[in-house]
């Protein structure tokens, strides 16, 4: 609200300064330069100047506040043009009537041409052209101002709608990721209950700690990078409990030296992908998870072997929901501030991910 009031006050100030400049340059400075010191302009001249200023102000705001938004922007172009032409005729008629009512023509003739007889019906053509030019300028400026204000309002509305759309979409994407994460984790704990009850109990404790993080941090738009990395560490420790000796983990996670900010649970789907496709109960495999922080930039890398997923498992039907949503979140939250590359190394039968995010 304070910003809105400041912008409104600034707009009023700009309008006021604009009219002061117009009055000084067009209506005062030029007349005062006429034969300066030789003649004294009659009071009828200054009355007309004040009258002219008042009419121009009325024309300006009538056009910008009513004619442009109610007629021109509604597509009634010909009606608008007709009104402008009729307005020019009315403007000229009011000027002529005012001059006749105040005796402007006779007074100016006596000042500039005292030796010649006054002809009431005769007018000075350059003066009429100048006055009509002022009318055209007032119409042109007010139309431009009205169109710019309309564009600014439309742009502000578009930005607000885009922000609302982004917030709604991000909420939807995060809501998709949360069940996806718990689905995989609970499957792991269920498998542990048949193998080692104590490990299953330990896993439940870690899961409860992660659930607190999800409940409190994932509802926010951002969290501390240190908290996110602790969450990732808990997740990796949980995954270790179900891995056999055939899986080698190469974990390199650097602790941040500064309190950087990151979107919560942004890296989790990449880790889920490693453990989902990079683990085999029969063959040896290696999973690399590497996180480095240099200044405000986070470098994230994963590598894992590719093993086919059991077609009877629920994971086989997920179609990469987590990864797809993460790509979308990155494009919404870090536009032009991230670089994501991923692919398969057929020679090594590996899947790799390289992600760089500027967290400044």
From TrEMBL:
It comes from Algoriphagus boseongensis. GO terms for cellular component: membrane. InterPro entries: Bact_2-comp_sensor_kinase, HATPase_C_sf, Sig_transdc_His_kin_internal. GO terms for molecular function: phosphorelay sensor kinase activity. This is Histidine kinase. Keywords: Kinase, Membrane, Transferase, Transmembrane, Transmembrane helix. Residues 169-246 form the Signal transduction histidine kinase internal region domain. SUPFAM superfamilies: ATPase domain of HSP90 chaperone/DNA topoisomerase II/histidine kinase. PANTHER family: SENSOR HISTIDINE KINASE YPDA. It holds the Pfam family His_kinase. The keyword Aminoacyl-tRNA synthetase does not apply.
